[in-house]
UniProtKB/TrEMBL annotation:
Protein species of origin: Paenibacillus eucommiae
Pfam families xrefs: HATPase_c_3 (PF13589), HSP90 (PF00183)
Family of this protein: Belongs to the heat shock protein 90 family.
Protein name, UniProt field: Chaperone protein HtpG
Subunit: Homodimer.
ATP-binding found in the keyword field: yes
Keyword field contains Ribosomal protein: no
Location relative to the cell: Cytoplasm
Biological role: Molecular chaperone. Has ATPase activity.
InterPro entries for the chain: HATPase_C_sf (IPR036890), Heat_shock_protein_90_CS (IPR019805), HSP90_C (IPR037196), Hsp90_fam (IPR001404), Hsp90_N (IPR020575), Ribosomal_Su5_D2-typ_SF (IPR020568)
Amino acid sequence: MEKKQFQAESKRLLEMMINSIYTQREIFLRELLSNASDAIDKIYYKALTDEKLVFDKDSYFVKVVADKENRTLTISDTGIGMTKEDLENNLGIIAKSGSLAFKKENEAKDGHDIIGQFGVGFYSAFMVADVVTVTSKALGEDGAYKWESTGADGYTIVPCEKDSIGTEIVLKIKENSEDESFDEYLEEYRLKAIIKKYSDFIKYPIKMDITGKRLQEGSESEFEDYQEEQIVNSMVPIWKKNKSELTPEDYEKFYAEKRYGFDKPIKHIHISADGAVVYNAILFIPGSIPFDYYTKEFEKGLELYSNGVLIMDKCSDLLPDYFSFVKGMVDSEDLSLNISRELLQHDRQLKLIAKNIKNKIKSQLQSLLKDERETYDQFYKSFGRQLKFGIYSDYGSHKDVLQDLVMFYSSKEKKLVTLDEYVSRMPEDQKYIYYASGETNERIEKLPQTEMVADKGYEILYFTDDIDEFAIKMIMQYKEKEFKSVSSGDLGIESEEDNKAENEENDNKELFEHMQNLLADKVKKVKESKRLRSHPVCFSTDGELTIEMEKILKSMPN
Ligand code: ADP
Ligand code: MG
């Protein structure tokens, strides 16, 4: 039987692809710059094994030039270039990637920096251009060729003149229509911003002719226009630098440049992992709460890079909710990207990275708690509530991660203490971890219920946050010590006689009965108490819910 190849309506296919795989038009520049970087990389790899070839760093760069008058945007590189066959194969066949082939051939060396793999990125240029003209001269060739296309209608290739090796891509930027404008892709500041956003860490210089105004030499008031060639990208990502070469200021600068926040981060975490999954990450614990942090509008997430190229602005899968305050980025070569590079194909690697990151954040917070208590206090003031929410969420399944990180105000220490600190100070005869809930520390201090516990010399944790008691219910017990509200019926410190006295008939039987009748639908029982010292009366509960919790539950919208 004869086996037939599928035919494709390539015109339709191209149109579909151009208009459906990308959600953002601006990424066309990322794609073309990535290709240029790959082209230079290829010369670099060739030079590693070819003695005749010298890789002189200074002669390799990419240049971006916008011409508003002619509505053209030109991206040229001094990379390896394309032969006539290359143009035909790589730009003429959709989904054919010369870069992927190169990577496979060179796997033994370190071709892993090559970005291209799908063979479609180039066509994204048609999202912003009517005509794309590629002029290229390949390494080792005498002649140059010009490839030109208006997109769906196919392409032409003709011989042409080009002095130097490399590729020049000219985009004829689309005219504006009634509801769409393409002018921004000819604006210097906008192009610069797009390059910074996606391609800041392309290894080779991306140059632009930047115009501006400056003071004339020798003058204090006269300005002059100038134009100078500038390198727009940072090239070496801070996360690929050696940690020992970096100062805290470098990280702070990065934090500010990346606009992670306007504050100064409390701490940075720099991870270079090369175990089961290879990735670099720089994470920050912010110094103050983002204004929208405790609102629905807040979006958690880390920037995700693949080989130094930005894939996602806010990858939320990388952070658990309880660490949603963490800012920063992750770069990995191991990600399985989908064709648009906007999403990930499989999340196995991502899950591994996320787990790894979670553990690193936890241990960073733990060492902060141990070694820099003041800084931890500052952190806790902003984000402690989120940690407590974390304990409560998902039926307490994160309590192991978080219970050592939470703190509560202590009646004894008059400051925030950890559960571990509390338990380690407990006298031998103390059975429970005692807490009292209320609106403020001052109010709790005056609660009659605290008297007996305090009298025993036991420490009491003050719960002033709505979430506190709910979180603690999820922890259930810490180091085998259960939690006990000071307002619960059985405090575990009453002597046998006390209990007996409370339960037995006594002289005031009639008074209590009378009170109970008056308060019939408000209280279950009125009885004598041995726990009071200076106050005449107090409430106590014997169920799971304390009075404070009931108050909160009642105030919640159903
Ligand atoms: P990918 O980069 O995923 O391979 P593209 O559609 O972006 O897919 O590019 C297709 C191919 O065209 C590349 O693999 C590469 O072989 C070739 N190519 C594109 N741009 C250039 C360039 N500036 N210099 C040399 N080759 C290029
Ligand atoms: Mg590409």
